[in-house]
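Checked the freezer inventory, then went back to the computational side. Two predictions to log before the end of the day. The first one is the construct we discussed on Monday; recording sequence and tokens without edits.
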Amino acid sequence: MRRSILLLSILTAGAVANAGTELGIQGRQFTINGKPTFLLGTSYYGALGARKDFIRRDLDDMQKYGFNWFRVWATWGAFDNEVSAVDREGKPREAYLDKLRWLIVECDRRGIIVDVTLSRGNGVTGPSRLQSTEALRRAAKTLVTSLRPYRNWYLDMGNERNIRDKRFVSTDELAKLRTFIKELDPKRLATASFVRDIKKDELKPILLDVRVDFLAPHRPRNQKSPQQTVVQTKKYFELMKVLGRTIPVHYQEPFRRGFTPKRWQPKAEHFLADLKGALEADAAGWCFHNGDQKDKPQSKPRRSFDMREARLFDQLDDQEMKFIRQIKVTASKTASTADTKAKSKE
């Protein structure tokens, strides 16, 4: 029954605009204004470089199709288009920080949750940045203090922080940063995303030392991945129970089209299967990840990675739109199945 209640957030998304939208956590789930809510989102990484009319139209479509959350980067500079809200040392870049503030306010009015992500970068999404502990701390402070009045966003302190290149953020750095953020804003939710499935020995320090508010694993990007989501999600909950602290599991960056198209180009049914798996296993959120097309000239369509020339929904291909149009049907069927199983146990 709880799952069907959570799915109402998808089935009725966009029906009500909320001034003063607040993200919270209740057990394994997120809440919006106190109500358990599954976060169904999309990558929207380069939003700070998009025109406001593009953004408004994209937000309209997000709500039309059931999305209630998206991910934007505060450190984005792909395709020689530097649109970061903070500079390499974490200091504000006022024009883009103002754009981020406008975006948060617009989403607050609509009842949409925003993931604001920091990354030290590896040269793909712009130059490396925030390389010192102090710079990363300064960037977090810039965002938390500038956006403190709004409760509809959370902070990813380090995208794929476990990769051992310039993106790496140590457990000690994260623990101190998380404490610092809570001192600035005690109720601000924060996580640190992790590339691949998190192993038991890796889970313990981020769960108990860093004390992230929720897990944000980036699952493997291969054809087997969608069928593994149920088992992997349940495994996380089993491990957390043993460790003595259970928090939500949020899939903020799964596989996408265009990433390794010669090896695997996921289709609508793969996105649907992965989303369904996340729902069935009691995950707290899932993202329709999208980005550039690596096997095409100029990597186009670039989708959320570059929205200077066209908005996101005008860059999605047929398979992506096929998936998006089926989201509410899939959610409805999953809710019905969950209710049937629940009644059979009564």
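The second is the one RB wanted added to the comparison set:
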Amino acid sequence: MIIMNSLKKIMKGHIVGLILLCLFASAPTVWATYELSQSDIKANAPINKLTQWTDDLTVSWEAPTMGSGDILNGFIYKWSSSATALSDDDFNIDTGNDGFTSTEPYAVIKNKTDLENLDSGDLLYLHIKTFYLAGGSQQTYSTDVVVGPFMIDNVAPTGSVRIVDENDNDITETSNSMLNLKLAASADSSKIYISEALPRPETGYDFVTDMTWDLTEATPGEKTIYAWFEDSVGNVSSSPVTDTVTLLSSVHISPYTATIDLVSNSTQVFVVEGTSATYDWSIINEVPETSGTVAQFSGNSTGVNSVTVEGLVKGTFQLQAVGGGQTLTSGTITVTESTSTYDIPLAVGWNLISIPVQPVDTAIATILSGISGKYSIVWGEFNPSTSAWKSYNPTKPINTLTAIGPNKGYWINVTEDCVLSVTGNAASKAVDLLTGWNLIGFSGDADTAITTVLASISGKYSIVWGEFNPSTSSWKSYNPTKPINTLTTMGVGKGYWINATENSTLSY
């Protein structure tokens, strides 16, 4: 029945074959000879040789000589990646073969568009079976004759180029016109083309993973290295990969460009390299992301060879150093603010917490989504003048506490032990206090001595309560007039009550 289905498909349009099929459909299938001879098969592309082939692939053959009484109907064929003969099911079922040819000259053509994406590791075989009527009536196939492999490579190699230092670290600036290049490419790459400009040069080099490149244009400024890759059969990458470095003069500000992170490291030292001369420094071309001063000097910036710059708000700026009859200018320096994630452990019952970062989205439902179903209510934004609270209950449609942020304390009642993870930017370390009790949060980078945190409001508060223990309903406290206190540090993600004796601002 498998052969019957296949025959119906491949003999469509061949009236003689169809009549014979109808006449002898009940006859048993016989497997016999008449397989093609490899010497009778010709191809217009090399076999078993890696080659670039951009034309149609044509395989043709001479029909075997039929014995007396046997009738040749044609040939069934299938393209495959298999070097071994295919099973009858793979080859003969309706969807298993690629076609049938019964007209001389016998040939199969693989369209060139089907070959465009073949790479060096792709092997292509053509499987052919002779189909004939044994004794003029019995439908019969020969064994599978495999032609190939056709090792066609029409895909250019891919790769990368990196400009590195002597330790293979990527660099963006250098004062050396001899560049170290780190190259990587597809396994079949055999040649590389390097240039400092477009288009691709005519002459290439044998592919290596490490090479040096002496810049032909050695005036200070931005330099781009272009690289193209070629394989053994001539496929060349159409577009280059690139890497860029700034070539500095012998005397220059270092680092020439830099990124200052307000969270991880808010200061950066800059020095004039190539001389011990002193300079007067200034910050120029400030572009804040929103508003404010992007950066400031920390320490002396006049008559020195190096300065320390502190980032203040997100944005960009440049440095200028004037001295020794010359003016030096840095590249663009960027002030960023990476996000941090804090995990706040919560125990069953009431917990007094704070949000130690500035969330991108301050909506309370968003911040608490990670512990959804594990808390019942949140209280916050206590007003000491009215002794009033705002609250949030996730089961109610309307709530007075809709957003939460840093430097404030919040009570949260959780129904099971869990961890609240909060991600955001660095929070302000200044808290406005009103006379009386204030519920605040601490946004320091780590647990800090309470005397250090409260130094800016010395004499303006009477007592601090914190680290509430829900299991014992007890507090730790700090009174600046007492020699011994149970509350000695303030911690990240915790809330504190502070009784201010006058309106003031706590800065730490």
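For RB: Confidence is low (pLDDT under 50) at residues 1-32. The chain has five helices and 41 strands. Let me know if you want it refolded.
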